[in-house]
Amino acid sequence: MDEYIERLKDGSLKLYALEKELPPEEAVRVRRAFVEGETGTALPKVGSFTIDIDRVVKRNIENMIGAVQVPLGVAGPIRVKGEYADGSYYLPLATTEGALVASVNRGCSLVTRAGGADVRVMRDGMTRAPVFAARDVPHARDVAAWVESHVAEIREVAESTTKHGEFREAVTYVAGTSVFVRLEFDTKDAMGMNMVTIAGQKVGELIERETGARLVATSGNMCTDKKPAAINLVRGRGKTVVAGVRLTDAMVADLLKTDAETLVEVNYRKNLVGSARAASFGFNAHAANVVAATFIACGQDPAHVVEGSTAITTVDRVDGGVYVSVTLPSLPVGTVGGGTGIDTQHECLAMLGVAGGGDPPGTHAKAFAEIVAAGVLAGELSLLGALAAQHLARAHREHGRG
């Protein structure tokens, strides 16, 4: 080890090149020892992990020195009545926020007692939007017109890059001499960002060649990936999922310790009016909490919590109770690729019965999206109830959190 550390110190060996000379486990150990020496910090816990790193260092991370462990809890069971997920599930939630799992667990009990969450995937399409530079405004219009009249050619080029993805549509947007082409794909059980980026590059080259517009970037931010954006809230990105449950007045009183009218008012004034006044893209209580905890547990890209948090929670007064629903317009999830193959994350997906590819393709990712939406619904119910009953601060005190 000393030889490699000396080479790292004198610059004759780069940190990223260790795997070229050593097996992955040894490369990680040497790199960690080097960083310990450089920073004067011992990292024994970072260096203690159970995941198999052979795959991880090739697909998931560079310059690996170990792993950070996040506590994993479970909430449930929750009854889900979806088109792809139909049954009772224990939700794996990885978080460091005390009281979160307890809160979701309470919501799961309420949803299950009410007979389960109705869940449907309304739309499914991952996007990538290359941006082109046109010569002038007339040329920009010509480029958009070409795209609109050559969808078959675009589909052929796009689908030539993937065995699994299916091209859905191309929508153009013009701003001055900038032309954005928002491409949408059905990426089956993959979350699909790599798939649509590769396809987007080929489509971009086709449009550049045929129209004379210059391809500036494969992503022009009209996608929109990992940033708050109204286009995702309106048109959707990834899975658009809606979950709802009908609660009787007795259930609201028994488990949430409040009444239907108060629940409706809290949701209206907090989630709807409060969010509107703040110009928020998320009209919900804490959807990001459940999305983030599930994403971390199940190997999703945590940065996509940005899109996943743009949820809308509604509470309708109905005869004898309320109907509570959550709408997640932009939920980018997958059960193959990315972090889903890491051992611990794969186990969490297996808990839900959605690990790997589905049969037919795409059914596992859709089932997972339905389960996530049901979990968000449970979290929203619980927090709304706590707020309506003035129990939020007390719950955090009881769990030792300020």
What would you say this structure looks like, in words?
α1 crosses α3 (24-39), α7 (151-159) crosses α8 (193-211) and α11 packs across α15. The two termini are 45 Å apart. The radius of gyration is 24 Å and the shape is globular. The protein folds into 3 domains: 18-69, no CATH class; 72-124 and 236-398, 3-hydroxy-3-methylglutaryl-coenzyme A Reductase, Chain A, domain 2 (Alpha-Beta Complex); 130-217, Hydroxymethylglutaryl-CoA reductase, class I/II, NAD/NADP-binding domain (Alpha-Beta Plaits). The chain contains 16 helices and 10 strands. The chain has helices spanning 2-10, 18-21, 24-39, 53-59, 100-113, 137-149, 151-159, 193-211, 230-235, 249-255, 260-277, 287-297, 305-308, 343-351, 363-388, 392-398, and strands spanning 72-81, 86-94, 117-128, 131-133, 166-175, 178-186, 214-217, 238-248, 312-318, 321-331. Strands 1, 2, 3, 4, 5, 6, 7, 8, 9 and 10 form a 10-stranded mixed β-sheet that branches. It has 402 residues and is of the alpha+beta class. A hairpin with a 2-residue loop joins β5 and β6.
Q: Helices and strands in order, then pairings?
A:
Blueprint: H1 2-10, H2 18-21, H3 24-39, H4 53-59, E1 72-81, E2 86-94, H5 100-113, E3 117-128, E4 131-133, H6 137-149, H7 151-159, E5 166-175, E6 178-186, H8 193-211, E7 214-217, H9 230-235, E8 238-248, H10 249-255, H11 260-277, H12 287-297, H13 305-308, E9 312-318, E10 321-331, H14 343-351, H15 363-388, H16 392-398
Number of strands: 10
Biggest sheet descriptor: 10 strands, mixed
Number of helices: 16
Radius of gyration: 24 Å
Strand content: 15-25%
Reported CATH architecture of the largest domain: Alpha-Beta Complex
Overall CATH class of the largest domain: Alpha Beta
Query: How many separate domains make up the residues?
Result: 3
Q: Tell me roughly what share of residues is in helical segments.
A: 40-55%
Distance between the termini: 45 Å
Output the helix-strand order.
Answer: HHHHEEHEEHHEEHEHEHHHHEEHHH
The third-level CATH topology of the largest domain is: 3-hydroxy-3-methylglutaryl-coenzyme A Reductase, Chain A, domain 2
Under CATH, the homologous superfamily of the largest domain reads 3-hydroxy-3-methylglutaryl-coenzyme A Reductase, Chain A, domain 2
What is the arithmetic mean of pLDDT?
96
